[in-house]
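Fig. S4 source data, part A: sequence.
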Amino acid sequence: MQLYHYFERARGPFLTIMDLPYEAAVSAFAEINQTNPNLVPQDVDWFLERRRELEAIVREMFAAKGGKPRRKAPHYMTVERADCMKSWYLDPAHIQIGIEEFDPATVSFTYGDMFPVFNPRLDDGREYRRNVYTYDEIIGLIAKYGYPQQTEPPNAPTHCRLKYVEAHIWSDKVVGAYRGAWFA
């Protein structure tokens, strides 16, 4: 299994807006908006609050399954390629890392982006709604449903689309080496 991290080439990889204090995150969005308004949510306050809520839920659910998150907010990756993410950046780049490089106790997964997965208005009763998975569990789910980026109908409403299997990296150990190599 390969994990992919997409990012703006000029900024470099593994920058997590949720690592910033609230005001700094709002300022970062304002700066990004000047060059790439497609990447900035329409309601920054709502986005930051909801993301913080979702990350806390995912972290708690993962820990309840035996996960060992070492960060308050995760780094985000996709399981396998998700080229739809390239459209988020003016000059997209990506890093590909094999899952075997990570301690499985520091990686959780959602079958889809966590925003639609945990959106109560989109809850259609499928087992992957409002759920977090360990590595072994996500392997079974992918075997059952495939990858959303390969199986989801292209005409699905944008706000409902799962788009990809999301990986949440709850440690800086591996990503720190890749971040450092990018700027070396």
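Fig. S4 source data, part B ends here. The chain has one domain: 2-183.
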